[in-house]
Design brief:
Length: about 425
């Protein structure tokens, strides 16, 4: 009886292979947590296929694995192609392959995991900042050749600060060095570096900034790949030279800086010349200048000697004698022409004097003529207008006579026609 009951119960609850597979498929594919899930692991195998790409992810210790598939054109959109031995971070959804009773992950994207993911993020940020032109050579400014004040952005406890001070003091005594303290490691480092650079700009005394730090791990130097630090360097109003002690690839801070040195000491050496080298250069310039002046004097002395020889060949005495004779002849001609003009002017002056003498009223009076004036002083030219009893003044050659009009006679010519004669009596 127990056997019959057990057999009956088994028949009532038994499922077909397809049924249980459908049930599992529904559970997995409709689970909201599994329709879009990120999975990371190591690629243990990868097989290209005409329909897509098949690969397997497993834990690093090999205790678990999952089959993955990328269908069709999605393969070309993967950021990282799955390769055996690489760590990947994949995005996909869980599905069930019913014919084999297996589940698999339908992948739509694959990214490098661990250091690979960091490298991807670094490259993406670098590409974006480069597209903005923050790394262009045209943006970079030349460092001042002889700065008087230098600002250093670093940690005051770091060995880099001591190396920079020592190098600057040895190479360029008397230089003013300003420290703008900053945290150069950890989560607070980016904001601290940005604030330190802004502090130097606000102070405005420095002609150049050294951003320095000693070596360290990738995590230690992560702040120099921070976007905030890169932008502060790129848009600084003061030229910046980086001296970050690392031998790996350049940081984004190095790419944005006006000049990048591999160590803080190298940055200090780049930013100022050696004083001893300046002295040697000055001495060389003085020596060169003396040589140039000496050569110039020698050339001028040679030129003067050549001119002297030319003067000797020209027979200056004969030249001066000929010019003297020419000047004597010109002088004689000038005297003759001047005398001729003077004689002509003298004759003309005498003629004018004779004409003036004939026109002189005194000469006319000397010949017996007289000038008659009325009481207003005007000259009387005719009898018209004169009144009987009017007084007139007669000017003679010697003396004047005052008369009175007794009678005004008519013109002589009309009197002849009428047969009359008259005379004018003067009082």
């Amino acid at each position: 009886m127990n056997s019959h009951l057990s057999h009956h119960l088994i028949l009532e609850t038994a499922l077909s292979v397809g049924g249980i597979t459908d049930y599992i498929k529904e559970l997995l594919e409709e689970d909201a947590n599994l329709t879009q899930v990120w999975v990371y692991g190591e690629v243990s195998s990868a097989s290209p296929h005409s329909k897509g790409l098949f690969f397997t992810l497993q834990d690093s210790n090999g205790t678990a694995s999952i089959r993955c598939v990328v269908w069709g054109n999605l393969v070309k959109q993967l950021v990282q192609m799955p390769k055996k031995g690489e760590q990947l971070l994949v995005l996909g959804s869980l599905s069930v392959f019913q014919q084999r009773g297996e589940y698999q992950l339908r992948v739509v994207q694959a990214l490098p995991a661990g250091e690979g993911l960091q490298a991807l993020r670094f490259q993406q940020l670098r590409n974006r900042l480069q597209a903005e032109g923050l790394f262009d050579e045209e943006r970079k400014r030349s460092l001042p050749s002889h700065p008087q004040t230098i600002a250093v952005v670093t940690s005051p406890q770091a060995a880099a600060w001591g190396d920079i001070q020592k190098t600057l003091k040895q190479r360029y005594p008397g230089l003013q060095v300003l420290l703008s303290p900053a945290i150069v490691q950890g989560e607070q480092a980016p904001d601290s570096i940005v604030a330190a650079i802004a502090r130097v700009e606000k102070d405005s005394r420095a002609q150049v900034i050294i951003l320095g730090r000693g070596g360290g791990s990738v995590e230690d130097l992560a702040c120099f790949n921070d976007e905030r630090v890169v932008r502060a360097i790129a848009f600084s109003s003061i030229p910046i030279i980086t001296g970050i002690g690392h031998e790996r690839d350049e940081s984004l801070a190095d790419l944005a800086a006006d000049f990048a040195a591999h160590t803080p000491t190298a940055a200090a050496e780049k930013v100022v010349p050696r004083f001893d080298d300046l002295v040697i250069e000055h001495q060389e310039r003085v020596l060169h200048l003396r040589k140039v002046i000496t050569r110039q004097i020698e050339r001028e002395e040679t030129r003067v000697l050549l001119l002297k020889n030319r003067l000797r060949r020209l027979r200056i005495d004969r030249f001066v004698e000929e010019k003297g004779r020419s000047l004597s002849w010109l002088q004689q001609r000038l005297i003759q022409a001047t005398n001729q003009q003077f004689d002509a002017a003298n004759q003309r002056c005498q003629l004018l004097q004779q004409k003036l003498a004939t026109l002189d009223p005194k000469s006319v009076l000397q010949r017996g003529y007289a000038v008659v004036r009325n009481q207003a002083g005007g000259i009387v030219k005719s009898g018209e207008g004169l009144q009987v009893g009017e007084e007139l003044l007669i000017q003679l050659d010697k003396g004047k006579v005052k008369v009175e009009v007794r009678e005004v006679l008519e013109d002589l010519k009309p009197q002849r026609r009428r047969g009359r004669r008259g005379s004018q009596r003067l009082k």
